[in-house]
Amino acid sequence: MSNINIEDNKILPRLRLSTFQNFFLDNITWFILLVIIIIASIIAPKFLTKLNLLNLLSQVSILGILVVAESLCLITGNLDLSIESTLGFSAVIAGWLMMNQHNASGWNVQPFIAIIVMLLVGAVIGLINGYIIVKIGLDPFIGTLAMLIILRGLSLVIDRGGMYYDLPPSFNVLGSGNIVGIPISVIVWILIFAIAYFVMSKCRFGRVRYAIGGNKWAALASGIRVDRVLIATFVYSSLLAAFAGWMYAGRLQTVPTNIGTGLVFDAFAASVIGGVSLRGGRGTLIGALSGVLLLGVIGNILNLTHVSPFWVSTSRGMLIFIAMLIDTFKRKIRRL
Known about the structure:
- This protein is mainly α.
- The chain has a single domain, classed as ABC transporter involved in vitamin B12 uptake, BtuC (Orthogonal Bundle).
- The chain contains 14 helices and 4 strands.
- It has helices at 19-26, 28-43, 50-75, 83-98, 111-135, 140-159, 169-176, 184-202, 204-214, 216-221, 226-252, 263-273, 285-304, 310-334; strands at residues 163-165, 178-179, 182-183, 254-256.
- Strands 1-4 form a two-stranded antiparallel sheet.
- The longest helix is centred in the C-terminal third of the chain and has 27 residues, at 226-252.
- 42% of the residues are buried.
């Protein structure tokens, strides 16, 4: 008797999930988040206070923007590891232009000009990423990892390992200002997220990216200009990262060389935990939002309960590991 391969899809039919099972898989992070919030409210009475919740949202606003940037790439079946360095490098460029210090340009450029330049720098970085990956064919992981290292090195070259401080108040307002007691960074993040969610779920902008992530060659056969869309996606990703750099520098009111270090791993974890597939074509920004909030809530709980800060990095690593397991689990369940 011949051996039967139980993994052969011709013998075993695809697993048919009920509507509730699909809903649960797509929103599992929201259920986990709800449980953690309930636990947090019990072990840390200050967790549900207005002050703490606003502080929590403010802390995750920068990560939230980076998650939108990373999710755009992941949905197309790519990834961008350079977003944290794009954030840092663009902020360093802005500080270098505006400041009159020994390691700065001395030009005292007006903040609005520095902001335009830093956003243009972000767009150019995305254009380079897109070109070397789409046109030259470099692997996205290798290409964007190389860009991450290059930009970190260039930041050190420009600021000579120092920092820029005493940034103009008009530059800082995005990251540290308030409107009727609500941080401007939170308002802007929610606005960016809402726009991104709308265009990804309701507009052709999103449909073509899901189509490319689902099947690049089928998208090409249907008339979608795949190369152009992918390059534009990397540009949008880096532009959002540069914008986050403006917000982050404004919050700190300084620009240290290591600004943004490690954020790419949080952005990657939040996106995947929230249901954005590593293989592309699946996931929503609503799901990615749950990943952002989950990371923020866990970090906030650790602070409120006075857990050693060394455990914060450990928890992030564990969440990245869990994110990979969740994505693998979903693919196996759905026979993707």
